[in-house]
């Protein structure tokens, strides 16, 4: 079971019999009280939600008069340029971050590649849904990813499944269904 700690990567039980948890291969970084605001996962999660809301609204307007696949490709291009700009501008080692790529093991590259493919597929589906339906109904259905993450994190990562997580996941699901059917 995952244990609540002040580290970025929680201690988790094994993913499957005979394999190591994902957290065993990740570096552990502790969070000190001095930098807790800038490293608060809650603050970053709230900002993510704000930007995700902006994304839905901006994408709905942007996809109105263009093929949804082209719209997704254009957005992805912006994301790629923006992500590399962040690496160079804010990275601890600047250009040295490129050298770090050569040191990444195959497992890390595999999971980052699979994550990228999943993101691309998610965005393809999301943009098509935005093109066909109202943003106010598409976005809540997209957020069904939250209860899915809760279940998959429990099954695959060994994270603890708590009563608040179950109730919250069910409420998110119910809310998405009510909004989608409304």
Set down the secondary structure blueprint.
Elements: H1 41-62, H2 68-90, H3 96-103, H4 106-132, H5 135-142, H6 145-157, H7 163-181
Helix pairs in contact: 2-4, 5-7, 6-7
Listing every helix as H and every strand as E from the N terminus to the C terminus, the arrangement reads HHHHHHH
Residue share in β-strands: under 5%
Total domain count:
2
Approximately how much helix is present in the residues? 55-70%
Largest beta-sheet details: none
Shape, please? Answer: globular
Average pLDDT level: 82
Category by helix and strand content: mainly alpha
Q: What is the number of helices?
A: 7
Structure characterization notes:
The protein is mostly helical and 182 residues long. It has 2 domains: 41-133, no CATH class; 143-182. 66% of the residues lie in helices and 0% in strands. It is globular and about 50 Å long.
């Amino acid at each position: 079971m995952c244990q609540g700690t002040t580290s970025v990567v929680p201690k988790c039980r094994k993913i499957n019999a005979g394999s190591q948890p994902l957290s065993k291969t990740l570096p552990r970084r502790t969070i000190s009280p001095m930098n807790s605001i800038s490293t608060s996962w809650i603050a970053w999660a709230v900002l993510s939600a704000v930007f995700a809301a902006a994304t839905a609204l901006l994408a709905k307007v942007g996809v109105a008069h263009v093929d949804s696949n082209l719209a997704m490709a254009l957005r992805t291009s912006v994301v790629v340029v923006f992500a590399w700009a962040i690496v160079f501008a804010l990275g601890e080692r600047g250009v040295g971050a490129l050298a770090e790529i050569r040191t990444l093991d195959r497992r890390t590259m595999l999971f980052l590649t699979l994550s990228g493919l999943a993101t691309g597929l998610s965005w393809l589906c999301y943009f098509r849904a935005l093109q066909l339906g109202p943003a106010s109904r598409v976005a809540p259905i997209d957020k069904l990813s939250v209860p899915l993450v809760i279940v998959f994190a429990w099954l695959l990562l060994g994270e603890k499944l708590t009563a608040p997580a179950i109730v919250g996941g069910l409420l998110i699901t119910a809310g998405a269904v009510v909004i989608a059917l409304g």
